[in-house]
Design brief:
With 353 residues, the chain is an alpha/beta fold. Helix content is 37%, strand content 14%. It has eleven helices and ten strands. The strands form two sheets. It has a seven-stranded mixed β-sheet with strand order 1-7-6-5-4-2-3, sandwiched between helices. Helix 7 links the parallel strand 4 and strand 5. Helix 2 runs antiparallel to helix 8, helix 4 packs parallel to helix 5 and helix 9 runs parallel beside helix 11. The chain is globular, with a radius of gyration of 21 Å. 47% of the residues are buried.
């Protein structure tokens, strides 16, 4: 079974990724492309030799910011840089008014929900509903709808038009976590008031790189509670107080960066800038649906396959066969991405036969 997407995948894997047969765990941890490894190894050696330069680190972070903005279809001025999704969601959560209602998805990744739940001590209300009911659950009382574009445990996708329309009709803001979507499918962050994305999964950046997008119309409703010198209008003029002039754009939400992570982020972003998101999606879905066909499952539009595995027996068998996968919520989770090939489909199908 050889297709155009198979050949494309082989070319990409040869150019950017070291072969990793059976690695079906992008939803947990992406694999660094060769340029990421090269850039970070060089940065470590320069650091060891006393040649590291914080200004250069900052320039690389700005490169990653620009590339991410282009990838998700927003202005660079709308993108803030952070470390983890929960930290960025926390900035939004601390800004909701006392007593506000936040609508979340039952079983969503807790980096999306816990930052809001800890606000309940000051009267905020967090209401959880099934993913399929999210749009219908928005009411006039809802201040903000917080959800993942693709669910971590299953890969299920939210009905974006329905949810954004319902939020607009009731005057609610939207916060979308795109961590499990950006990198394998085209994402338009401009459809939402706010988005967050941890980039160490499908975007193959080092863990410790995350992005926040803020629609300019809602920026003044968010307090930059993690503001430090990196949030200043002029970063290197903001290292000492008491004067504070924060950036006029989304950079006011930046946190001080873990520099070496952003060396890798810049290199990874350059790789993904050369990839067509539609072709990546086509490739990932073709492989996932090929495996679904082998397993007697219906095809669908997501590259993640989950199989019931309450005792963990399937996961253990797959790992023994050389398949790297994850166990989530009583299921085996298999995630296909750019480095995978038909050989990985065969490996899983044979292990489960």
């Amino acid at each position: 079974m050889t297709t155009v997407t198979d050949r494309t995948a082989a070319e990409l894997a040869k150019k950017f990724w070291k072969p990793a047969p059976g690695y079906l765990n992008a939803a947990t941890l992406g694999l660094p492309p060769r340029p990421v490894v090269d850039a970070m190894q060089d940065a470590l050696l320069r650091w060891q030799a006393g040649e590291a330069c914080p200004v250069e680190y900052g320039e690389l972070a700005e490169r990653a910011r620009r590339q991410y903005a282009e990838l998700v279809g927003v202005q660079t001025s709308s993108v803030a840089l952070g470390s983890q999704a929960s930290v960025l969601v926390g900035t939004v959560a601390t800004s909701v008014p006392d007593g506000a209602e936040i609508l979340c998805v039952t079983g969503d990744f807790t980096s999306v929900t816990f930052p809001f739940q800890v606000q309940e001590r000051r009267g905020a209300t967090v209401r959880h509903v099934p993913l399929a009911d999210l749009a219908d659950a928005v009411t006039a009382k809802t201040h903000l709808v917080a959800f993942s574009l693709a669910q971590s445990s299953t890969g299920d996708l939210v009905d974006v038009p329905a949810v954004t329309q319902a939020a607009a009709e009731h005057g609610a803001m939207t916060l979308c976590d795109t961590t499990q979507a950006t990198g394998w499918m085209p994402v338009d962050a401009g459809l939402f008031d706010l988005t967050v994305c941890s980039a160490y999964k499908w975007l193959c950046q080092p863990r410790g790189t995350a992005y926040l997008t803020v629609r300019p119309e809602v920026a003044d409703r968010i307090t930059p509670n993690n503001a430090g010198w990196y949030a200043g209008e002029s970063v290197w003029d903001s290292v000492y107080g008491p004067e504070m002039t924060l950036a006029a754009d989304a950079r006011r939400f930046d946190v001080s960066l873990a520099w070496l992570c952003w060396v890798g982020a810049a290199a990874a972003s350059e790789v993904f800038a050369t990839l067509d998101p539609e072709q990546v999606r086509e490739h990932d879905l073709a492989l996932a649906n090929a495996l679904r066909g082998r397993l007697g499952l219906e095809p669908c539009a997501r590259p993640v396959i989950t199989l019931d595995d309450p005792a963990g027996d399937l996961a253990a068998g797959l790992e023994a066969a050389g398949v790297r996968c994850a166990s989530r919520a009583g299921r085996v989770r298999l995630a296909f991405h750019v480095w995978n090939t038909v050989a990985d489909v065969d490996l899983v199908a044979e292990a489960l036969d």
